[in-house]
Amino acid sequence: MNKLIVSASLVTLGATGLQAAYAPGLSPMETSKPWSVAATLRGFYDDNYNLAPSHSTVTATAKSSGGFEVSPSAKLNLSMEQTYIGIGAVYSLKYYFDRPRPKDDNQIELTLKADHRFSQQYKVSFDDSFVYAVEPEVAGTTLSSFQKQNTGYLRNRGKIDFRGQFTELLGFDASYGNTWYDYLASEVDGSLPAALNRFEHLFDVSLTWQAQEHLIGYLGYQFGIFDYTSDKFVVNPTTVPDPQRGTDRDNKSHSFYVGADYGFTSQLSASAKVGYQYTTYDQLSGTQSNPYADLRGTYTYLPGSFLQFGLTYTRNATDQVGTGSAAGIVRDQESATVFASLTHRITARITGNANITYQRSVDNGGIDATTGKSLDGSTDNYVLLSLNLQYRINNNWSTEIGYNLDNLDSDVHDRSFTRNRVYAGVTANF
Q: What is the pLDDT along the chain (430 residues), one digit of tens a residue?
């Protein structure tokens, strides 16, 4: 089922020298051996697995069920003198006792990371994540393409990044990211694949300046392409005049930004990008401009205890299509997302984790097919909260309990919902 994966990366400042074993970002446990395997067994209770609306004008009501989850995983880390390669695989099977068939949900994630340092001045890195999942609305920090259908999907997100230094003070960072979405429902008129199957391309280049020992400034530009792949109509073509196809929502964006990475102290570091984003649509009329922001920080206040936080502001795809006509289609959304993640070591064996994300997404264009009202400016206010308490029995075994809240408050009728889940389990790690 849906999970929130909130990523708030640690800020790396300055250049590091070559080491006998090049292992960027690995923990001492991960560098102690090249491989690790783990397995988690959980019991859970879900009070709204069908994501029924909170205040519905239809007959849908929330369905609840207990169940269990089995999740094995494996990692392989290969650290060489100037190269690191990491491979990971996670599988999750959730079984619902009281849900009609199918009673099981399956999720697979495969990851590949490669990092090579040519010299102290130049390095290249590659990061790829392939996912098969159900309820794919949570696909990153921004809850892009939010949708309420239990529909399987495939997603592959890859990025290659090349960094270098012209001089001790001046350098560059150039990257290309590609994300592919393929929803597995039948690709017919009015289907989710017709509205959301796409490639997202992002080219990013910036010049960097080592202003101080712990301060790096940069000036950058991003070029984004949303390439929708379905030639099916986003709605039933017999219901509206001038229906639009999935490919009609293709768009391109230009983002200009300034930013900095700064280490305030050995405990507090932050990264910030702020700028302007301009979007044009290949087939649909109109253009859009909005602020662009990506702010992140980490504060380590005690050994094993730290806070990660951030804010993003950008555009994203949406499952909302409105009437689906040229005049009534929702083009995309403008979203502001605030997130925070707290890890606190309560004792040597007990660790608590709390994660919260709030996203406010505003529809761009569109007319509600049911009410006939304008959707332009309609908002989705989405809150995700997760709480987890882990007790480490020894280096190989641990137990945990947790709670997840999903809450959507939307201006669109029959879209708001609340979902609560609790779980308890045990994990073995070798």
A: 333 323 333 333 333 333 446 666 666 666 678 999 999 999 999 999 888 888 755 557 889 999 999 999 999 999 998 999 999 999 999 999 999 988 999 999 999 999 999 999 999 999 999 999 876 444 333 444 444 456 788 999 999 999 999 999 999 999 999 999 999 888 999 999 999 999 999 999 999 999 999 999 999 999 999 999 999 999 999 989 899 999 999 999 999 999 999 999 999 999 999 999 999 999 999 999 999 999 999 999 999 999 999 999 999 999 999 999 999 999 999 999 999 999 999 999 999 999 999 999 999 999 998 889 999 999 999 999 999 999 999 999 999 999 999 999 999 988 899 999 999 999 999 9
Q: How far apart are CA 113 and CA 111, in angstroms?
A: 7
Residue 338 and residue 382 in contact, taking contact as beta carbons nearer than 8 Å: no
* Measured distance CA(218)–CA(195) in Å, rounded: 36
Collapse the DSSP code of 249 into the 3-class scheme (helix H, G, I; strand E, B; otherwise coil) and give the result: helix
Q: Could you tell me the pTM of the whole model?
A: 0.88
Q: What is the dihedral of CA 34, 155, 9, 167, to 10 degrees?
A: 90
Domains of the chain: 28-429 (2.40.160)
183/425 Cα distance (integer angstroms): 31
Instruction: Name residue 183's beta-bridge partners.
Output: 153
Residue carrying the six token digits 């301009």: 278
Q: CB–CB of 183/194 below 8 Å?
A: no
Q: 425: Cβ–Cβ under 8 A, 6 or more apart, which residues? A: 40, 41, 42, 43, 69, 399, 400
Asked whether 246 and 230 are in contact (CB, 8 A), the reply is yes
| Per-residue tokens: 192 | 């989710």
